[in-house]
Amino acid sequence: MGGTLLNIVTVAIGSLIGMSIGNRLPERIQKSVLTGLGLITLVVGFQNANLTGNIIIPLLSTVIGVIIGEWLRIDAALERLGGYLQERFGSAESGDAASTRERFITGFVTASLVFCVGPLTFVGAIQDGMGLASGFQFLAIKSVLDGFAAMAFAASFGLGVLFTIITVLVVQGGLALIGSVLVQMMTTPGMTDALAQDPAIIEMTAVGGILLLGLALVLLDVQKPRIANFLPALLVAPLLVTIAGMLNIAIYPL
């Protein structure tokens, strides 16, 4: 859990710095910063999506996952959580009440998804839970990146970004707990070191890249897909790989 705690600290510090300078930045600079974040997110999304060994897995995962997500209305649940936090803690923010609420929720949901979707989140948190030094190193790198991203997000969206420490704690902390359970099950030498090369992790990372591409569209103000509703695809991908393995179906071309 050490890597997750470090990540929470850097996000909190970055958010506080961003909030302190946000009001001093002209709106045009804030928009340009968000555009820059959108472009970087686009590049990372393409890189991760291209890791797949069989595009059918991300395709099926995305379609099945978004159907589940739309049925569960995950986006609405995240927005309700953001709205609750805004009512409870964000009333002191200046500005029109409606626009302030929307800004808080947008910052909370968007930053939460950016911080919790990606290979460093999954591989790093699980390996950190296993007690591997590489896991903490992954999360240390992620912490630095998230700290700067939080600074930029908070400068534009304000207090909502600070509360993403809740989602980081829940998601990465949960993955670390899974890792601590897995390490008890993996008794063969080298099994933990091979985690990052596991097809299930690779395909989950590829699907995460697709979600990052969707987030890039939001940050670039091209389109506003309900990315939160795609989150179940991250669980569907490794499930499909596992099922294929049980049925002796080769998912990667020989």
Describe this entry's structure for a reader.
- There is one protein chain.
- Helix 2 runs antiparallel to helix 9 (199-219), helix 3 packs across helix 9 (199-219) and helix 4 crosses helix 5 (97-116).
- This protein has one domain (2-244).
- It is 75% helix and 0% strand.
- The protein is globular and about 60 Å long.
- The protein has 10 helices and no strands.
- The chain has 254 residues and is an all-alpha fold.
- It has helices spanning 2-22, 27-49, 56-72, 74-89, 97-116, 119-129, 133-157, 164-185, 199-219, 233-246.
What distinguishing features does this structure have?
254 residues, mainly alpha, 10 helices
Report strand %. Answer: under 5%
Total of helices: 10
Instruction: Give the averaged pLDDT, no decimals.
Output: 83
Specify the overall morphology.
globular
**Strand runs, count:** 0
Q: What low-confidence regions span 5 or more consecutive residues with pLDDT below 50?
A: none
The total domain count is 1
> Which structural class is indicated by helix and strand composition?
mainly alpha
Largest sheet at a glance? none
Radius of gyration: 18 Å
Rounded to the nearest angstrom, the distance between the terminal CA atoms is: 38 Å
The amount of helix comes to over 70%
Order of helices and strands: HHHHHHHHHH
